[in-house]
């Protein structure tokens, strides 16, 4: 790093890129050294990575800057600036006061619950990166920074170093057959030099968490040659080392570490398992900010809150069966029963779709309050399903009206077969479930469109989104030959207002 040390003093005024005054060196690696620095233009502390202008380092620096520019997440180290001067390239990022995950593991300063909190933050950050077309490809403890004072659970850990990331639509940094990343944390397909996708990051994250919980990396051996032979094998079950951990957590990590990418599940699956186990693992010595799921209203524990949510849903099912005529009960059960399947790990959301008949066209904006796109889509589809079944139950149009040929409630209320043949079948036959797809897509994309950075930009984006939703609903109704949709303008205005308010007034979304 001697050459790098010399390059930091090139500028006569002691500044790099005309504004950053370098201070002590924080660390060094194969691609340069990182210094703390003062941004003299904005009077703030930053981190500056100084990269020699030779070999592949400049290209990796360019890639890291381009990757980070696509991302905006508290669990990802933000890049502020990038530039070149003779002999060096510079990357300027936020200065994270804290330690690496590797250092905390070595010092044995993490509780099991801390590890799960870190895992939830990283899963959320990686899901955001993948949504923006970025695959990190080098998730490892050394690239995970743990702030001393995180501002929220999403920033409980920060993913750094996107220098070997793959960007959708960009040329690959290496040709197929080359290998980038860190061997002991590579997915088998990555180590084999094949093209990788988000499942490689899932594998690496699971391996990082396995190591933090078990105290050793099951892939790493005494030499690189021995490690290579371990990559791609079935790894020892985590439960063999940590019998005290919840079985669901161990099973989820073991699944995410399967050699075949198609058998690993998704980041959402792993995050669900981390959430389920969060308050079932010890927190002695824990130092990381609590996850919202540890702070339910009324001081209820995570398990008690889930039990209460399930009990409330079950009470609704029992009430419907015991108090309603057979035909009405059939439609109500058809509305209630899909939620536990679509939102298996989120019982607190099972009854949220019941708001759809009240909110009509504005409901997709409510569904958009969920943090994960999978849950947003599920809520949107379930809300549309509730609406479609509520219209024949109530006997009038809430949005697009009952399907043609649907009989009145008085005629089907007491007969299950009549309700199935004369209400459910026409609804499916008319193609009305296409509304489920429309609302699922509408709810899923809201946080990607309305980013919370600028009120003016958000107003434009929310207006375009709500207008598009209203236009698509109208076109769907026309194509299916139903009645003209009711309340589209009011629904569009309400949906747009909710979309703008979501990142400002609902920062602790439906998940919290």
Query: Structural class given helices, strands, pairing?
Result: alpha+beta
Overall 3D shape: globular
Instruction: Please give the number of β-strands.
Output: 11
- Strand order within the widest beta sheet: 1-2-3-4-6-5
* Count of helical regions: 21
Number of domains: 3
Mean pLDDT: 83
Tell me the helix content: 40-55%
N-to-C span: 46 Å
Largest sheet report: 6 strands, antiparallel
Report on the architecture of this protein.
This protein has 512 residues and is an alpha+beta fold. It folds into three domains: 2-94, 2-Layer Sandwich (Phosphorylase Kinase, domain 1); 98-295, Transferase(Phosphotransferase) domain 1 (Transferase(Phosphotransferase), domain 1, Orthogonal Bundle); 299-505, no CATH class. It has 21 helices and eleven strands. It has helices at 2-7, 57-69, 101-106, 112-131, 188-191, 198-214, 224-230, 238-241, 247-256, 267-277, 302-323, 326-336, 338-342, 356-359, 363-367, 373-394, 409-412, 416-429, 434-449, 455-480, 488-505; strands at 15-16, 20-29, 32-39, 44-52, 79-85, 88-94, 98-100, 134-135, 144-147, 158-159, 166-167. The strands form three sheets. Strands 1-2-3-4-6-5 form a six-stranded antiparallel sheet. A three-stranded antiparallel sheet has the order 7-9-10. Strands 8-11 form a two-stranded antiparallel ribbon. Strand 5 and strand 6 (88-94) form a beta hairpin. Helix 11 runs antiparallel to helix 12 (326-336) and helix 20 (455-480) runs antiparallel to helix 21. The longest helix is centred in the last third of the chain and has 26 residues, at 455-480. The chain is globular. The two termini are 46 Å apart. The model is unreliable at 1-12, 173-178 and 296-300 (pLDDT under 50).
